[in-house]
Records
---
Amino acid sequence: MPSDLFIVGGGPAGYDAAMAAAKRGIKTTLVEKEHLGGSCLNWGCIPTKFLLGAVASLAELEGQVKMKTASGQIQLDLPALVDRKKRHLEATRKAMAAALDKAGVQLVRGELKMIGAVKSVVTVGDEPQVFEYKRCILATGSRPAAHPGLKADHDAILNSGDILSLREVPKSLLVVGAGFIGLELAQFFSRAGSAITLVEAAPRIAPSEDEEVSKALHQSFKRMGWDIHTGVRIAALENAAGRARLVLEDGREFGADKCLLAVGRLPNSRNLMLEMLGAEVKGAGWVHTDEHLMASPTVYCVGDVNGRTLLAHAASSQGEWAVRHFAGELSDPYEPGPIPGCMYGAPETMRVGIMEAQAREEGMDVKISRSQMVANPIAQAHGATGGLVKCVWGEGRLVGVTAVGHGVASLATLGTVLVSQGWTHKQCEEFIFPHPTLDEALKAALLGPAA
Amino acid sequence: MPSDLFIVGGGPAGYDAAMAAAKRGIKTTLVEKEHLGGSCLNWGCIPTKFLLGAVASLAELEGQVKMKTASGQIQLDLPALVDRKKRHLEATRKAMAAALDKAGVQLVRGELKMIGAVKSVVTVGDEPQVFEYKRCILATGSRPAAHPGLKADHDAILNSGDILSLREVPKSLLVVGAGFIGLELAQFFSRAGSAITLVEAAPRIAPSEDEEVSKALHQSFKRMGWDIHTGVRIAALENAAGRARLVLEDGREFGADKCLLAVGRLPNSRNLMLEMLGAEVKGAGWVHTDEHLMASPTVYCVGDVNGRTLLAHAASSQGEWAVRHFAGELSDPYEPGPIPGCMYGAPETMRVGIMEAQAREEGMDVKISRSQMVANPIAQAHGATGGLVKCVWGEGRLVGVTAVGHGVASLATLGTVLVSQGWTHKQCEEFIFPHPTLDEALKAALLGPAA
């Protein structure tokens, strides 16, 4: 019997869409080719948080050792950690499958081969099966990018998925790409004992972040002993007798036990023949969507694969929105408001809304106010005094917040509320922040002199 | 020359009032008898956070050891920690004095002896001096309570101020009083190595908190090996040859190297002859204030001493409000909105707004929704899966939030925004929480089934 809604991909976008559809009594089929939870649960957000959680004690101890208030030794058991992470992921996937079943969603384990307007072909086992539906939600996600000459061999040269299964901490780790994926994993392996060499083509690490944030991160990681090279181009990367060997265009060479390739992500839209539906596919395969997240008259396209915002919570929001649109609950364009982004570890970063450079480019009447983390007693108590909080004001209202330092990812949700509501200085002044908190670093930035 | 505003007490209420007054060009005198920063900076919020920050590595390691993913040894250097804390407090007090000076506030080091309507007597050095003013802000704060038979001798029986200067971790620590002060300090000494015995007269620990929060805390502390006795009355507490000896009314006896008395706080209003002004003084000396925070026609009374809310951020809010009222900027009654409260450490608690029991008492149409911390991946990553987030809904709007567990104090400010704005279920549903975060434990509670 045909479904009302046919969802392809069981990551955050597809899974949350399926649950939202089931809740509304919509007959729903969900196709997943590998693991429920997608990249986020299986090879991204969640496993990296398990790794970073496991070295949080080391990060805390670092702060106290620096202040000479404590000393000690902590031994990480990486095989045990990897196994525990694996058990957690398995249990979560099982719980997700059970939730889908309970909600009445038909879960198909298979791979989409060809998409059509109202029917699609899925390979289930080895057999092609045809599924019919009223509408489809395409939520096939993304995968680690590989470039010519920059390819994971899954032995010495690893992608961000491979490296999560390492059972031995490499003595030396070469990290290619200083976006959040590279930086979070480098932080983990650094604290676990790897010597880190970080290579980035852009002129600064965390190149999508505010410049002051990049600079503070750079200082922190230098203090952690990382060898950082920015604005460099790679001539060759190879597996030389089981070790990674990297040559820069300027001739410099680096060797390491392992290399992590973290050079961005690519959309999972290969061979789907989306163009047959009239969908527009851009660049490496990013699927263009209209203001209602539709790629064609019957196909929504949500999550990473549409290239809008490669973040799990953005994907979930889009997936749920598509269901509500399908259900006729809303018809206005999709306007999610400001979407926060974080990097976890020690230090952390957060960002939401419009950053300074963008605000200036757009010709806004921009004012900036700041606070330094060193002035916050909680940061002081943890011996982690680097970093800052930076507020961007446009026409007298808060339009953006970013921060870098101890625990600042915990400011992301609060910052999102304030930015999405466009708080004024007066509103901030009249609001009571609890004391003493890290949140007061945000308060200090909000109330600081704006210029 | 007489001041416009005469402020007594340099804690959060008085200091923030003085800075707010100076900013408005009000001629201001601030009297402080001991240390700028008051109890919060010198014997309360801040030093306890330094202690808890120093054992955060131990708390994190505990979580990993429990999961068998790490092992290790951490040695705290208590004298070094106490000295570092001392240096931080001194530097902060110096910065506060400099800020007052720069702002043009006259700082008088002395003790208020007698308060009058438009002039007061202050002992400066050994000399009484008379200060004249238009209005006074009384912000004299509170001090650790002592009861007959329950008195600190500052040797074996310590109050919450004394214990901060210990340079040796007691092998055993008896904690009398299971409010936040007792529980935070007990957490620190427990992780630093003391065997903890906790004694509380109320039927449960953290008796002012939601019952489910108390219960979860109790479980956590039991797992940490504490010997907890609730609903008990003390017959005797004494220093027996340099050790603390406690006898309960039921005859049971406990001995320990040290005893911490944390049995509440008392207002600093002794011998001020406030009654001469027509002020009403209640109970142990709590000063009654009207809807404009006034104790008499020329005297505002703010912070702990008025007994409204014994929290630093409430005190600051009141102090600033009094200045704005004096300046004629506002005339409506003081309505601060919901004031958050937290306990720090591992586990933590947070609370803001109306709790379940109060909401039911008030006859509201109450619904409760919850999430368990075990379902949050960040809590899982830290191996700290106890606790919950609990939302209280009244007439379809969020009226209260409380939580207990790993890092939940970071939910306090966010919770305060949501409660003060009275968010609906629909608003929560449409808001994008960043993933993965601890804040999603709040999201899960907000969106959970309400009954």
Note: Chain A touches chain B through 70 residues (CB under 8 Å).
---
Amino acid sequence: MELLLKDCTQVLTQDNKRNILKDIDILIKDGIITVIGKNLSTTGKMIDCKDKLAMPGLINTHNHLAMSLFKGYGDDMPLDRWLQEKIWPAEAKLDNDSVKYGALFAIIEMIKTGTTCFNDMYLSSEAVLKATKSTGIRGFIAYGMIDLDNPEKTESELKAANSFLKNFTPEENGLILPILGPHSPYTCSRDLLEKTKLLAKEKNLPIHIHVSETKKEIEDSIKDKGMRPIEYLNSIGFLDKNIILAHACHLSEDEIALIKHAGARISHNPTSNMKLATGGAMPLQKLLNAKIPTGLGTDGSASNNSLDLFGEMKVCALLHKFANNDPETASAQTVLDIATIGGAKVLGLEDKIGSIEVGKRADIILLDLNDTTMVPNHNPVSNIIYSATGACVDTTIVNGKILMENRTLKTIDEKKVIENVNEFASKI
Amino acid sequence: MELLLKDCTQVLTQDNKRNILKDIDILIKDGIITVIGKNLSTTGKMIDCKDKLAMPGLINTHNHLAMSLFKGYGDDMPLDRWLQEKIWPAEAKLDNDSVKYGALFAIIEMIKTGTTCFNDMYLSSEAVLKATKSTGIRGFIAYGMIDLDNPEKTESELKAANSFLKNFTPEENGLILPILGPHSPYTCSRDLLEKTKLLAKEKNLPIHIHVSETKKEIEDSIKDKGMRPIEYLNSIGFLDKNIILAHACHLSEDEIALIKHAGARISHNPTSNMKLATGGAMPLQKLLNAKIPTGLGTDGSASNNSLDLFGEMKVCALLHKFANNDPETASAQTVLDIATIGGAKVLGLEDKIGSIEVGKRADIILLDLNDTTMVPNHNPVSNIIYSATGACVDTTIVNGKILMENRTLKTIDEKKVIENVNEFASKI
């Protein structure tokens, strides 16, 4: 099946040279970018891309999809009160149906704001998986495990994670992939972390874990374990190239060296960290200097409260300029790299996605160059980071399939999902 | 002339009690809100406001409209290099026609993102005024004065400012008002500041001035004048209730007391300050504790690079939570207050705008409650600050006149303006 993106006014390739191409066609066959050139034709569908900018779809490396149900349910509170008074009581009311609609609603928001790949960790993962498969988006789904040092819970959580893995069959198209999700070093016992690691090695799976999010977490780790969280994960043999560390706000120089040596990867969530006041900015430039793969994440909608990575990119640039008192750090190009090819590296998909190059999967978004946020066009990268919002995304393509065209969703009944989300929300 | 907003699903009044009304009508007559109630009817136009949220239009208290022409022209640079290498050479190419289209383009962006009133300071102010009058938006325009201690320039700048004032005739509808704009204490001589003050008293005009934006400005002021910028302005009798201080990032306790005592007002520009790394967050909570009128501003499009106050509100909340390491500060309601009634107070228009109340001018925006950013509706204030962007604004009304309906502009030819902006941009 072919798809031709005809006469793209600009193509932000995000290839190694960061080439920006002009007035060019992109031919996609069976989900793969096969030709980038002039005067191409097709027997399949063609999209007129005049006054459009084509760029790689954005990659959200840390999310809790179904928490879209709790967007705006609790804000402006410290983390512990937010969890105890708001989120945990609300989560007790979730069932498979509400999680399904919560996940679908998050996917609607992602597709409409140009995100083509996500990394999810939550509960009722079967419901998330079922919802996700129907949408055509790309992503990883983890069943989030928490045992709080309770040995019975350790076994039941591992059993649930194992059981979830059985939903992934080899004959699938590989758009949705499994990942293991032990929640964090402070909510998971050493036993659970070690057994998760064994399972990951046996099944050749990556692991997604929260770590070093707040200052309190660091202090507690030093008190309880005699070392900082990353040092602890390293000491139990947990840290390697298949580990995705979400947040990682507070890292010592030694911990950065440990992450570098292990080949582990980072998901950076600037808005969530600022909103919850986790106490200091992630050392972005140090991580990039060490060539540690770093991607961008929104965290869940209850702690952001948006899945729009355009907004997240701007906040990322602003945070690091402010925190380092340096207007030159976290440049527009640096931030765009994190949100595209950087995210692909974090998810181990750099051979498949993250840039527009022949041979890669066609995860492409088209921006409207006549949108006020993209005018004037002195520098498209600057406009994308500092001016645009996800509302300038006109068309979203994943694996060569059009999920949104002219801002109309093609695979999800938006009205029905919103009705169901509102209905659930009215009950909590 | 009547306008009826029928069956508003929610009305965020921003009145003294911060009432949120449900399923209610708003009747507007000759630009004034005359009735808020049930089952109202009209002989004039009616807008069906089912699934819409009505709220006061947002107020942008610091802007340089025509700098929209330079959006994305220079980023990720220190202030001095940015001015010398990028902005000043580009400004040398401006003429009345380009400034007109730059101003119109900024107004398009504002109307489309729910801003109904602005406070501008720039050059070619006659061109800005002429463009603005045709659009129906509300605002203040200043001719920006800079003399750099050159006495000839002092006189010519005052002459230009005086001449600009002659464009405002008593018979106008009062939507666009004059304000005086001495650029800053470091670009204006004491003589210029004192003569501007006399002129302001004579004509009963407010004054808009940049102050205490960067750490360097504070250091230079102490070195050159023996005191900090606000202390200096106070010492020359400049500080009173008609002064709007833009930026004011770096304030000592003594300076806050001086501002409070004088009754002066503040325009806070968080994104611009973070992007240019001006070195520390404005002491927002201290200013609010002192009950100093404080509004929100975007600064010009060249240093933000967006005029969307929805994004600005989110950045404002995030900045202060991060800088103060406190998730409870800069709450959603606090930030919404700053961007609405707070801005009205800063501009001395609190009797006319900033809230939806009987007797006030109808500067009202309608948000689409089915937009993904506004769903679910646990808390509309939270959704507005943390989730929404200006793209959720469906309709923008100023002084009872519809400037945008169903996202279609009513008073400006958007296509023509964009063509002209692109043409100018291609020349610099």
Note: Chain A touches chain B through 65 residues (CB under 8 Å).
